[in-house]
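Q: Could you predict the 3D structure of Transcription elongation factor?
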Amino acid sequence: MKPMEAKEVAVLVKNLEKSKHNDSTVLEILLKLNREVVPTEKLLRETKVGVEVNKFKKSSNEQIAKVVKKMISSWKDTINKNKKLRLQQQKEAEAAKLNSNQNGSNTTTQVPDSNLSSPQKQNRYVSTKPRNSKNDGVNTTIYGVKLRDSVIRALYDALAKGSEHPPNSILHTVKSIESEMFKLNNCTENEKAYKEKYRIIYSNIISKNNADLKNKIANNDISPEYLVTCDPKELAPEHLKQKLEEIKKQNLFNAQGATIERSVTDRFTCGKCKEKKVSYYQLQTRSADEPLTTFCTCEACGNRWKFS
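A: Sure. Here are the predicted structure tokens for Transcription elongation factor:
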């Protein structure tokens, strides 16, 4: 039997809508659709047949409801099988293309380097063109989902720029990172959180002040799972981490000064303004056998210091 064309399906969809109060006509149309429609994503999108059929899922007519449930289940199975087949074909084509580029390209060379420490970087990949997915001949259309594939392409381009890692190594790393992002925040259910996580990772990778992070990711010194789930502060360059730690200590100092009862004395002299009106308090900040730490604040100029 010849599969029903989109125009024919569209006509039946209109008739189904017009006959929604006539159970016998509705059942007749549904059975015809069930017999003759070969579901594809394009057909369902163009004709809206799935949307219209689904309206009868809770019909008071048991026969209609049964046919609809059977159709919807069958169509979903067919669509999912086609998706898996298409994805498998894309992966096979991608693998073949990568092998072809690495074995026969006249624009790049892979140079053995026994001094490289990473097991993933077995050869140096030297290109005569700027490194990116296009120039590396890498297909980043992995899932057929625009947002996910865009993230994979952007992360690949960011890691590949200036790198000597082979394309297959970079692509494997990028796919692993995106996969962890998707596990944490499914982009179809929580697109905002997915995009925010991507922006944090991408901005840190391309940061000129954070080149060490990019190298660690490419060398697999940082696992994709840790990269995605760690506190964003952990991705900051070392000098910024030190600055944040100093701010944290200063905030702690200020908080302690604000909550602990302080005494004012003239025994201490401010090293900044030389005034002797100084408030202070003491805390045990180290082990019990160590002396107390004294925290001082000049009441005249606000200068703060501490000593043990």
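Q: Anything worth pointing out?
A: The radius of gyration is 32 Å.
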